Amino acid sequence: MENSPPKSLKENICIKAAELGFEAVGFAKAEHLSSEKERLNNWLNQGFQAGMGYMEKHFEMRLNPTLLVEEAKTVISLLYSYNQGEEQATDAPRVARYAWFRDYHKELKQRMKVLMEFISLELGTPVNGRYFTDSAPVLERAWAVRSGLGWIGKNSLLIHPKLGSFTLLAELILDLELEPDQPFGPGLCGACTRCIDSCPTSAIVAAGVVNSNLCISYLTIEHKGEFTQEQHTMVDGHAFGCDICQEVCPWNKKPLRVLSGKADLNRGLLSLTPAQWQSIDPEQFEKIFFGSAVKRAGYSGIIRNLNQQKQ
Ligand code: B12
Ligand code: SF4
Ligand code: SF4
């Protein structure tokens, strides 16, 4: 039998990442994101971050990975799909699909820790770097484009040509030199404007630009305090997050695959009927949403979103 040539470190990282439940991996040179500076600046200057004060902090760090990891050489971007074909009970208040599983911040960090350990083992010495998912001033979508994983759709999300946009992004920033992949070419939205046309609050103010002040996802997850009457009307029927601008996207309409190596679905959440949502009390909330991203809004946040009285 002929011996196959030994696999490169890059190939082995891809194989291990797939084993850990990541569908796609891309590599980019860790350099200053100078071309993104103006976009980020404009977004902030227009106040599109709404009440997310943290988006105004660490401006330079957001553009420069070497301020997060000294001597950073490579950014490895990982995609984790959560498009799995189940649905919530009919007419129940909507919960964003990514929150139907254990909180991805915890779930993906565990998986990335294993990947870091694997790289150290392969190298025979501890690799210097850090891993993140939505947890640091990193322009995650910009890195994914640079790593060749997809393009930024008009809904502002990263769209992978095979996986669509129901994916979460995570990255390893390492001081290890690995051959970069080609950045993704021009976007493939074409003349389509379905996401812009379907957004119930007109939050997509230009192709790829979301004004968080108008976005149901922002209002139901990040907004602190009570809603005005207008905000109540805007979030109507949404308990946590919003998927409308993804549900209408033709790139998410491909046949769903059975996903393996994934976190378990929160069946309690999916089976909640409209009547059960209406009467949810703090104890039930804790039980159903234990370990879930929905906890970010808290019981009082969910009650506010649903415009209900506290039990
Ligand atoms: C703040 C934030 C929000 C805000 C603002 C959203 C926004 N569009 O910026 C709110 C609360 C509204 C939000 C909502 C959601 N979010 Co959010 N959010 C973030 C966060 C923390 C920062 C995003 C950011 O930096 N925004 C500022 C803008 C200016 O940056 P940007 O859009 O990334 O654009 C940069 C580059 O991509 C590039 N760029 C942008 N557009 C284009 C276009 C072209 C042509 C080019 C060349 C370059 C380019 O330039 C910009 C540099 O300034 C990221 C995590 C992270 N650290 O990146 C998650 C993140 C973007 N969110 C995510 C998710 C899942 C969501 C929701 C789907 C959740 C839900 N179901 O409710 C919604 C989607 C709403 C929407 N249509 O955007 C995922 C997206 C995964 C994906 N496949 O894209 C991320 C990456 C978290 C993660 N780790 O997976 N989010
Ligand atoms: S998440 Fe909902 S509200 Fe926000 S831009 Fe998309 S469709 Fe509009
Ligand atoms: S709905 Fe159409 S315009 Fe919007 S992101 Fe998808 S392909 Fe692009």
What report would you give on this structure?
The chain is built from 13 helices and ten strands. Helix 1 runs antiparallel to helix 4. The longest helix is centred in the middle third of the chain and has 20 residues. It has 311 residues and is α+β, with helices and mostly antiparallel strands. The chain has a domain of 166 residues: NADH Oxidase (3-Layer(aba) Sandwich). The N and C termini lie far apart (70 Å). 32% of the residues lie in helices and 13% in strands. A four-stranded antiparallel sheet has the order 1-2-7-4, sandwiched between helices. A two-stranded parallel sheet has the order 3-10. The mean pLDDT is 94. The chain is globular and about 65 Å long. Strand 8 and strand 9 form a beta hairpin. The structure holds cobalamin (B12) and iron/sulfur cluster (2 copies). The site of one iron/sulfur cluster (SF4) has 12 residues, from helix 7 and helix 9. Cobalamin binds next to helix 2, helix 5, strand 7 and helix 7.
